[in-house]
Amino acid sequence: MPDTYIDVIPVGAMFADPTYQRELDHRRAERMARDWNRRLVGVLEVSDRGEDTAPRYAIINGQHRWAAARTVDADMQLAATVHTGLTPEGEAKLFFDIDAKTRQLTTWDRWHARSAAGDATVTAIERIAAECGLAVTQDPGPKNLQCCAALERIWNRSAPEVLADTLVLVLDVWPGDESAKKAVVIEGIALVLDKYALYLDSGRLADAMSDITPRQLHARARDLQDSGTKGTFPQLIARVLVTAYNRRPGRGRLDLTILQRK
Description:
Elements: E1 3-10, E2 14-15, H1 26-34, E3 44-48, E4 57-61, H2 63-72, E5 77-84, H3 88-102, H4 107-116, H5 120-131, E6 135-136, E7 144-145, H6 148-157, H7 160-173, H8 183-195, H9 202-210, H10 214-226, H11 233-247
Parallel strand pairs: 2-4, 3-5, 6-7
Antiparallel strand pairs: 1-5, 3-4
Helix pairs in contact: 1-2, 3-4, 6-8, 7-8, 8-11, 9-11, 10-11
């Protein structure tokens, strides 16, 4: 059973697990070291990985204080609440729970921690992205998606296949175009696939998208916004797409008012 106790741990026996810890802000740690005040350090939160592990204690909360302490004195010992019996997934969940209460996490901090903790939604989204040859990450790159919040909104609002179909369509129509992977573009396309699932000719939509670059799509949505057309920006993106779809040859037209329905 998981248990906790307070102990004094050498800084050399601690480490930060990058699978759930945010990236160390070296400037922040250096600043803390310059202004070091032992009385302000407080108590760290660590997980005992067992005596066969070296370093033994995974830092759950306090990695910047630990990094600063190492700079001040590599032999320093710090007070810590030691958690026992946790798996790395359990550590990740505790990291998320503690940090959510102690500071404002960024979207990517939360995503990273949830991914390491095996969060079902994050795991499903990352699996779909991987099946499309993409990775959900805050880092730029031709195979990276930097819009985790938009991906989760799509997942929560739509059937699971909508997210996969959206990513496949984006990659097929606009391969290699980084602008196509912007959050509002992906979310706008997903709205069209979701709202018009019963009426949509996917080939006709792909043809309509081929007539527009992602930058033009964004610019036309901005023009709608500037002219006073109501709706979120993804809804305006979807509106541009539906208008382009209706102009293509084919049977039937899509009703624009459907985009405003909940």
